[in-house]
């Protein structure tokens, strides 16, 4: 049995009259739990206000990490005027614990008869909501950061691997240059012939035609191999197909080979083609390294734009297209993994908005990420449009072909902690954060949804 002294040990009850504490004692039930026992599972009803007399109770957040810790004496569970109906996260006894439970059926009577006691519990609810919201918001931010970090790591991995691979190949390739130089030195070429080959080769490199289809390239490679075989060309004793493959990479044709033959003669043809091939391989490796480096630079620029790390924290003019494109770049891995077609239609003459770019990027991240999660595994589509409305507002729509939002819950999706995702997959704060940011910008957001088509419309004033 619990005693009045047990309740007086709670600092929250220091201003509560003893008769009200005795009222509480007459209605509570003792409930003990061993270490490790789940007191309330996530998604299960919460029917009691609980006073922790001894031990420690934790509320586990996503990934089973401790989000809130209660040490005796502490108040948790259902509180007066709270809309809590079920546990959002597991409530676990971290040690052997002893508690007192007051069923929700007594709360209405308490609010009528015990003013100071009710006031104490309401203050506890206010403090708890503030602490809980802060904790979950931090988890939501960390989860978003984790998703972006995972995508960024994947995006960076490919160009980094390409640079390492091509740098090693270039190193090996350059070691063979002295032998090829000896071949060139033995050629009987005039200055005019050398200049003609040089000009022709570098003009080809500077004016590379468009990429051919696989079928066209295969046909070209076969034609080049036949031509080389007909002229008994086998550079360095290798198969003519290797040289033909290199030439095909740069869209060389039989006419190009005929031109070289005409310029240098049959006796010098093999040596010249070896030199041409050597330059082409070097060019390809350098170009590949350059493209991979540019890809990394683009990603870094997107990160810089997304975080606005080089700018102040105040309001500033925002390029809407830049923020959305940076977000799409950082979520590119998820877009490709789901085979989603993204269409962006933002007019180039759209006026800049006045606001906080970092906050708006959170909006784009949540809306795009939610849309990707709602789409089918393959064949999803996302369309992003922006238009100027009455020269005062910018309307931006995000339309996906996902499963849609049932009519019954459309009004709830912006409520804090409401989520349609499974336990551990969403905190229910994403759209709450979105709505808060948009209100901070004096804007509005609405949703229209039916199976196969969901559209979020964000309205932001141009002047902020």
TrEMBL record:
First-level EC class: transferase
SMART domains for the chain: HATPase_c
Keywords noted in UniProt: Phosphoprotein
Domain (Histidine kinase): residue spans on this chain: 291-464
EC numbers on record: 2.7.13.3
Alphabetical list of InterPro entries matching this protein: cNMP-bd_dom, cNMP-bd_dom_sf, HATPase_C_sf, HATPase_dom, His_kinase_dom, HisK_dim/P_dom, HisK_dim/P_sf, RmlC-like_jellyroll
Gene3D superfamilies: 1.10.287.130, Histidine kinase-like ATPase, C-terminal domain, Jelly Rolls
Domain Cyclic nucleotide-binding: 12-128
Pfam families: HATPase_c
Catalytic reaction annotation: ATP + protein L-histidine = ADP + protein N-phospho-L-histidine
Keyword set includes Heme: no
Superkingdom field: Bacteria
Name recorded for this polypeptide: histidine kinase
Native species: Fibrella forsythiae
